[in-house]
Amino acid sequence: MFSINGAEIVFNPSATVGTLSEPLWGIEARNAAIANSYFTCAINRVGTEVFEKEFTSGDGQPAHKDFGHFYGSSYVAAPNGSRSPGLSRVKNGLLIAELDLNLCRQVRDHWSFQMTQRLDMYAEQLAKAVQPDFVPQIIHKK
After folding, report:
1. Cα–Cα distance, 69 to 140 (Å, whole number)
2. Is 120 helix (H, G, I), strand (E, B) or coil?
3. Can you tell me the distance from the alpha carbon of 29 to that of 122, in angstroms, rounded to the nearest whole number?
4. What are the tens digits of pLDDT across the range 57-80?
5. Cβ(76)–Cβ(40) under 8 Å?
């Protein structure tokens, strides 16, 4: 929706820990930037957080108070798939990046996704898919 409405930069603040999503972190914002033809600023905090009360994480481990280590590594991804270097995993930092917003238009023109998108069809299918009685089409391979 951001891209459809003309966004050129989207900030994605995050507070995720290493065991949850770190293996995907380096490509997550790049994928969003490429698919949507805008810059994506992937922001993740550093350090740890300990809660007053114990909680479970749904991973089968015993209840605990330590949320885990936030892995930082914030970066900026461009619509052409390039990205900036990442910040530290363990120290707070400030990333300053110069962004050429013309790149958003250049990538959109090159890929022509807007020319071939079918927003009316997507909206119709989404309206059907969110209904409680929706039955997805299943194709069986013979």
Report:
1. 43
2. helix
3. 23
4. 777 888 988 888 899 999 999 999
5. yes
CATH code at position 96: 3.60.110.10
Q: Is residue 84 part of a domain?
A: yes
Residue 49 lies in a domain: yes
Count Cβ atoms below 10 Å from residue 96 Cβ, excluding itself.
6
Q: Is 4:37 a contact under the CB 8 Å cutoff?
A: no
Residue 18 has pLDDT above 80, yes or no: no
In a domain, 139, yes or no: no
The pTM for the full model equals 0.82
Instruction: Give the position of tokens 């013309």.
Output: 102
- Whether 9 has a pLDDT exceeding 80, the answer reads yes
Helices (H), the chain: 18-36, 102-111, 113-116, 119-129
How many CB atoms lie under 10 A from the CB of residue 44? 23
Residues with Cβ within 8 Å of 120's Cβ and at least 6 positions away in sequence, in order, are none
Tell me the two tokens of residue 48: 């740890």
Look at residue 29 in the predicted model and tell me its pLDDT.
Answer: 95
